Amino acid sequence: MSFFEKWKAVAAMIFVEFALAVVNALFKEVLSRGMNQLVITTYRFSIAVIILTPVACFLERNFISNLTGRVVCSLFFSALLGGTLTQYFFLIGLKYTSTTFSCAFINMVPINTFIMALILGQENINMKCKSGRAKALGTLCCLGGALILTLYKGMPLINQSAPEVEVNHNIKSWIVGSLFLLAGSVVWSSWFLIQARIGKDYPYQYSSTAIMSLFGAIQSAILSLVIDRNTSAWFFKGTLEISTVIYAGMVGSGLCYVVMSWCVKQKGAVFTSAFSPLIQIFAAVIDISILHEQIHLGSILGSILVIIGLYILLWGKSKDTENLMNSPTTEKNGQATLPVTSTPSHT
User: Fold this and answer.
1) Which of 177, 35, 168 is CA-nearest to residue 92?
2) For residues 80 and 328, what is the distance between their CA atoms, to the nearest angstrom?
3) Cα(103)–Cα(278) distance, integer angstroms
4) Helix 171-201 vs helix 86-96: angle between axes, to the nearest 10 degrees?
5) Where's the EamA domain (predicted)?
6) Distance between CA atoms of residues 326 and 318, nearest Å
7) Which of 59, 126, 139, 244 is exposed most, by the fewest CB atoms within 10 A?
8) How many Cβ atoms from other residues are within 10 Å of residue 167's Cβ?
């Protein structure tokens, strides 16, 4: 296996997490200017549909023949969980908190995904081997880092005389925002597991992302009209709002979802979700260098622990993959013991 083949999935996910961190920073800015959460989501997914549909028709011309009712139903729920509800919950949480704080809750995604995969039998831990112990230790490290990021603020490290952004939020709003962020991390984790199944049944990243975006746009528009019937919320108020929606649609919902779907198909749900903590690191860099926000000791300590846990977990997953490739696949009750780490083959 060449160096590029070995590391291209890692490089792709690092790019995805950086792009999503930029999306979150832009969303925080336009939300502070009063833009509606569901309107942002609707426009974002609509642009993704416009961009991806011609690409899917050109590169995946036979995708319609493999589009069954089961696949359409799966894509509908994929859009509901990974698109509409995740975006809605995270944007509300982002509105009530801050960019770095909201990204810290994304660090819970690998743990949630791993636990869900264990419950559903899509992942296992063999504590008798090094890879199993590494996965368990990496998950605990990520969880510990996420808890530090969330619960321990610590002393400010830069611009100590600058006013704190967080003081503008009262305790009640901060708690409400935290609950929405927690809900968003749970439904986001479930999307990875659904997408793992879709990748096996329907191996067309561009068309599946386009269809999912279409469902997400329809769901978000209906939910927006039910919650808030103020039509003025659908009109842009400035260049920043237009640029944010276009970037979020083309990159955030278009390119990033395609890449994540490909990574889930190639490496599994846990591998793909394990990169989510990097969003918090990139968000902190953006906050400091561009938005000039404060950073605290808790963010540094939590981020270091998350990165350590991330690499331990990825090492365990890579060892599982090597063991699977170097030995016959063991089966139990007619099913492979590690279905998440196997790469599905399609003719």
Assistant:
1) 177
2) 38
3) 9
4) 160
5) 9-150, 177-314
6) 12
7) 59
8) 7
Query: Sign (positive/negative) of CA torsion 223, 87, 216, 44?
Result: positive
Q: Which helix (H) or strand (E) holds 332?
A: strand 331-332
Count other C-beta atoms under 10 Å from residue 76's C-beta.
Answer: 17
DSSP helix/strand/coil, 293: coil
- Residue partners of 144: CB distance under 8 A and separation at least 6: 305, 309
How far apart CA 138 and CA 136 sit, in angstroms, is: 6
Is residue 340 a contact partner of residue 196, using CB atoms and an 8 Å limit?
A: yes
Q: What is the mean pLDDT of residues 245-273?
A: 82
pLDDT of residue 337: 34
Residues 196-214 have pLDDT tens digits of: 788 888 888 888 888 999 9
**DSSP assignment string, 213-224:** HHHHHHHHHHHH
